[in-house]
Amino acid sequence: MLQYNIRGENIDVTPAIREHIERKVEKVERYFPEGTNATANVNVRTYNNAQTKVEVTIPMKNLTLRAEERHNDLYAAVDLIVDKLERQIRKYKTRVNRKFRDRDGIGVAFAALENEAQQQRIAEEDEEDLTIVRTKQFDLKPMDEEEAVLQMNMLGHNFYVFTDADSNGTNIVYKRKDGTYGLIETS
Length: 187
What we know:
4-stranded mixed β-sheet; globular
């Protein structure tokens, strides 16, 4: 069951807007295993040119769904967000099922959605005085490089820290400037 945390910046979130967002975003619940509890964090912003930006983040166990969309119409932006989230879920399930089909069966693959989400963001550093302005803690889930790249792309980040399932070491995958991926292994 999804809980909603809807915030508006430069816009009042009216009951009609709240109802529309909840009605549309709850469509992705059909992809979740029964009994899954998650919070959909929705941020709605309007800009001077009347363009609206809608961001939706749904952190879950082993998976964080995130999408953002800019559009002149708030309601159209919400519709486009739901399409993006559904594509992410289908892509994730297809890859996970393909990976686990021969090993553990489909049931294990879908159960992966119920494990705790791994979230991480880099703390922004002030280049002059190197002040850390934000600290996050998270549990590292054992996975392989392919799954780490998938998680990184779904979060929209440029890097992802994970525990390698084979070596049990902490590794980092990152997106290179040329669009390929890199892997940093620790010893």
